[in-house]
Design goal:
- The chain contains 17 helices and 44 strands.
- The protein has 771 residues and is α+β, with helices and mostly antiparallel strands.
- The radius of gyration is 27 Å and the shape is globular.
- The protein starts with 13 loop residues before the first strand and ends with a strand.
Length: 771
């Protein structure tokens, strides 16, 4: 049963305009989406078990999504009683609803040169691909490309993709950041390439390439609050030396949960040159196998010219193939032999891929069209059931994500696409005169459909694209603001207090100043806003109307009162900036100022301690640095690396600092799968040994604050980007050990958010974005 199925507390459900409702309840607000339509999904591989056994079809189906996951998929009449009161069911009965498309190979750095005159692969790379790739050395150009790419995927119904970037690390950063904005599950990685390309595009050394890749894995892979997955990406054997391939294999051994993605046997000339470069290898595919780069989690693009023996190797190792029919035709590379790859006697996992910019469309429907034609030319035309399988569950299996995406099964992430068989006059005529079977409708959509046939795209239960709308409001960055407080006397937190008119994402910063509880947060466009909560006596408090600070930040912010001013710190375009304001509420925030000398994409941590303002920031390699400011001089001391007792620079992310009991405390996240770490020091003393706050693995953005004689910590557990629950812990002055983290069941912190924490008006407050 779904949570909150009774009518208690549901009369105040807040509708979001796309079928979503924020439903309050005793265990925290939940976001519920319900849609009705013709449901189609897969539970097995039709190449192995046949189409009838593999496909599930509900002619009048109902899909119920709770907090980003599918809670029910089945007949409408059986499920309508499960829809909570106050939740509107969106009617798509004229449409077909399938899992969101999964593109198993695509280049976001090639969207600017798609449909460039083809020639042959190697000449095309030199003439168009590599020059376009070098433009991504400009971060602004990369940001524009990533934004367009994500929007175009969603416009075409694609909710997950395995994406090639460029050799520049920031090309990975901006893609993952944009994917997180829309809530997409994206797999990507820095391209590894050290020969046979323009020098400006090559890695300067294998060692630097590995260091950059490790940093990106630690920064982004399964990052709390996102759905990002990292992939080790040697471009292809012709562009990589033996040393590069060897170290890539070792790196994958070090991080086995990431994917490995490369190109192989796309072009006959490529195979010939590869055999010359690696004469010691028995086959071209063995180049990757001999360097430890073939196993489950390997996705190989193209595979057009793989021999039967090499397909045997794929089966033996578990390596998958991304079938790229549009690209293979455009560049004249050849016809991928899908029948040979999927033979039941030794099947190879195969997914479908657009391969833009060799492919000429980001539409998976268009790509199905081309896959059918390639099969027909090879004497193996592919039916609609198998085409849609390849574009959904097949690609998810290739990427080891079939337990999360590619299906409408209960428990899967609620990514789905609504396809309209009446989208164009021709398509409507074709489906109206067909035999009416689901197989016939799917085939017409595959052969005649494109982005125009996509009525709507949903990511984690949120509609992120609606046909005909220039901009869809309900992105992953659009959540209602909420707050809660802990009362020492009652020993409990109050349930989510939702402020539906205030919306945004990331972690809102809060602190008490001049009689108010001040909050600065990122709105859905990352424009910073400021609001103040005021409370007198036992009367309910109120939040002021938010005001813009006039600046944008692609990270959360930090607040701290110091010497009669309130300071706000944020990262903008890699620069650490700050503003301040006094206690006169009518006066605006002061001008923006910069702390020079350090580039950072993460929010700094800040607190007043020992008459100075202390700032802790993280650089691009996840190394931490301290700086201090004194108001009497108006000068910063300068950035100094933070070193542990062994003299090593401390690495991690998302730090929080607080003054407590005469000491300065720090907590930070060392990595996605590790416990939060903490340390402290006395005035003028050395930092204590860094220790784990046990039981907090998977926390992305911990925060600390002192209240009523104790130090409190708060954070949210996550698993592969899925919200788990918010935790809190505390420690005292005399016993500097944290209590076992406990769940706060009354509140619900939304994805890609976190909890601001501070004491105000005799109680402990937290602020966050819910849903």
């Amino acid at each position: 049963m779904l949570p909150n199925e009774t009518s208690n507390g549901l009369e105040n459900a807040a509708e979001e305009g796309d079928g979503r409702s924020v439903v309050p309840g005793g265990s925290g607000a939940r976001t519920v989406t319900a849609v009705r339509g013709r449901l189609v999904w897969f539970c097995d591989d039709p190449f192995l078990v046949g189409t009838g056994a593999a496909m599930r079809h509900e002619k009048d189906g109902l899909l119920i999504c709770v907090d980003g996951r599918i809670a029910y998929s089945g007949p409408y009449q059986d499920g309508i009683g499960r829809v909570p009161e106050g939740v509107k069911v969106v009617d798509y009965r004229h449409c077909v609803i399938t899992p969101g498309f999964v593109d198993s190979h695509v280049h976001y750095t090639q969207v600017g040169m798609v449909a460039s005159y083809g020639e042959k692969l190697i000449n095309w790379l030199d003439k168009f691909v590599y020059p376009e790739g070098m433009k991504y050395s400009d971060k602004k150009y990369a940001e524009e490309g990533a934004e367009l790419f994500c929007k175009e995927l969603l416009r075409n119904g694609t909710t997950t993709a395995l994406v090639f970037t460029s050799t520049y690390p920031h090309s990975v950063d901006v893609l993952f950041d944009r994917a997180a904005k829309y809530g997409m599950r994206i797999a990507a990685g820095k391209v590894l390439m050290d020969r046979n390309a323009p020098e400006a595009l090559l890695d300067r050394s294998v060692e630097e390439a590995m260091e950059q890749t490790r940093g990106l894995i630690d920064k982004w892979h399964n990052k709390a609050g996102t759905r990002n997955v990292y992939a080790v990406m040697p471009r292809f054997p012709l562009a990589c030396t033996r040393d590069m391939l060897t170290e890539a294999g070792r790196l994958w051994e070090e991080y086995p949960s990431v994917l490995m993605h490369s190109h192989i046997a796309e072009n006959a000339d490529e195979v010939f040159e590869g055999r010359k470069l690696f004469p010691e290898c028995r086959t071209y595919l063995d180049v990757l196998d001999d360097h430890g780069l073939l196993r489950a989690g390997t996705v190989l693009a193209h595979g057009v010219h793989l021999t039967l023996g090499e397909l045997d190797t794929c089966h033996r190792t578990g390596a998958a193939i991304a079938h790229c029919p549009t690209s293979n035709l455009f560049l004249g590379s050849g016809l991928f032999r899908l029948r040979d790859a999927t033979t039941p006697s030794r099947p190879v996992t195969v997914g479908l891929a657009t391969d833009v910019g060799g492919g000429t469309s980001l539409s998976m429907l268009t790509t199905m069209n081309e896959a059918y034609k390639v099969g027909a030319l090879d004497g193996n035309p592919i039916d609609a059931v198998r085409l849609f399988y390849l574009a959904t569950l097949g690609s998810a299996r290739a990427m080891r994500m079939d337990h999360q995406i590619g299906s409408l099964q209960r428990g899967h992430e609620a990514d789905f696409v609504v396809l309209d068989p009446r989208a164009t006059p021709l398509l409507e005529k074709r489906t109206r005169t067909g035999d009416g079977s689901i197989e016939d409708v799917l085939f017409a959509l595959a052969l005649l459909g494109d982005a125009e046939a996509v009525e709507a795209t949903y990511v984690a239960g949120r509609r992120v694209h609606q046909r005909g709308r220039k901009e869809e409001k309900a992105t992953w960055s659009d959540f209602p603001f909420a707050w809660s407080r802990y009362d020492w006397k009652s020993g409990s937190w109050i349930p989510d207090q939702v402020v539906a008119t205030t919306r945004g994402w990331r972690l809102p910063a809060i602190d008490a100043f001049a009689g108010g509880l001040h909050c600065v947060y990122n709105d859905p466009t990352d424009l910073l806003h400021w609001t103040v909560f005021t409370k007198k006596d036992d009367r309910p408090g109120t939040w002021s109307k938010p005001e813009s600070l006039g600046v944008r930040s692609h990270a959360s912010v930090a607040l701290a009162p110091y010497h009669d001013l309130l300071y706000c710190f944020y990262s903008r375009d890699g620069k650490i900036c700050w503003k301040s304001r006094d206690d006169q509420m009518a006066k605006p925030w002061g001008p923006e100022r910069e702390i020079p000398g350090l580039s950072s994409q993460q929010p700094p941590a800040v607190t007043a301690y020992n008459d100075d303002l202390h700032v802790l920031a993280v650089d691009g390699e996840r190394r931490m640095h301290w700086n201090t400011y004194h108001s009497s001089t108006g000068a910063w001391s300068g950035w100094e690396p933070w070193k542990d007792g062994n003299g090593d620079i401390v690495k991690g992310g998302w730090p929080s600092i607080a003054a407590y009991a005469g000491r300065l405390y720090v907590v930070y996240s060392p990595g996605a799968d590790a416990d939060v770490r903490w340390t402290a020091r006395d005035p003028g003393g050395e930092w204590w040994r860094h220790r784990d706050l046990e039981g907090t693995a998977g926390t992305g953005q911990p925060r600390i604050a002192h209240y009523n004689g104790l130090l409190y910590a708060i954070g949210s557990w996550w698993e592969s980007g899925k919200y788990q629950e918010t935790w809190w812990a505390q420690q005292g002055v005399d016993v500097p050990e944290w209590t076992t983290p406990r769940s706060i069941t009354q509140i619900r912190t939304g994805s890609f958010s976190g909890n601001g924490l501070t004491a105000y008006h005799g109680q402990l407050y937290t602020a966050y974005f819910t849903g």
